[in-house]
Amino acid sequence: MEYRRLGASGFSVPVLSFGTGTFGGKGEFFSAWGSTDVAEARRLVDICLDAGVTMFDSADIYSAGAAESVLGEAIKGRRDQVLISTKATFRSGGKPNNVGSSRYHLIQSCDAALKRLGTDYIDLFQLHGFDAMTPVEETLSTLDDLVRAGKIRYLGVSNFSGWHLMKSLAVSDRYGYSRYVANQAYYSLIGRDYEWELMPLGLDQGVGAVVWSPLGWGRLTGKIQRGQPLPATSRLHKTGDMGPQVSDDYLFQVIDALNDIAEETGKTVPQVALNWLLQRPTVSTVVIGARNEEQLRQNLGAVGWNLTAEQVAKLDAASVVTPAYPYWHQRSFGERNPAPV
After folding, report:
1. Residues 3, 62, 121, 194: which is the catalytic one?
2. Does 20 map to a domain?
């Protein structure tokens, strides 16, 4: 398993991480992802560790905290072998202060996560979204306190706009607070918006991408093909309208290219899609998920080989879209303002 530095930090992470959104299975949304119990989770953790996948990603809202609890039980007795990343900010209860990135909620969320995970520190703690109601200085001073207290090792964000992240980094630099080194972002062959602003920011500021939903919200699993109905077990039946939207014409244009390259390489469609991501700038780790052992082992086959330059170019061409303003305009000034890819 290849390891890469997380952004400009000295912290190394495996290029594949395991996402625990399938753990717990509480509520209609997360039960559509999966309902992995503790025994199944232990087996998946075993397989991950054997393959060198040592980082496990979770969040307080995944199955209302049950995902963190299941993960905590699954790693019991081997905390020193794993890296834990988790997230907070979204509403985690019915009281007025059970939401956001205030000092109150972040301390509450961190302590609750530590208890569910059965650990006294979190390797990577990420804000799940930007809280415009809390001063950035309050958020960052709180996170810095948690780092200094030893409860958190490294900091990151998720689902931030470019200006959200850049403002936060500027405040950290001004006051000497711990800096964000990770950006957990949606990025896939059918969702390349990350490249427009967040990727150049990551290159400039030393923020590594922790990629979520690398298979396009379950659309690039190889089970969805032109002219065929959705598989009966697809989570898209219940969650398709909740995630990133994509037209059928564009989706199948990309899938056709993936099928061609899968045939050329002898790999599967998801393995090709994941390998493409691993060759993109700023990508530190790609979060893979799996309902079962078979899916996990298939996703692990995305490493240990590389697409050729010609195959990458074919996938680039099939998935390219015209970016929003001002990014399309900036491309005409590539001589002094080059695109990162």
Report:
1. 62
2. yes
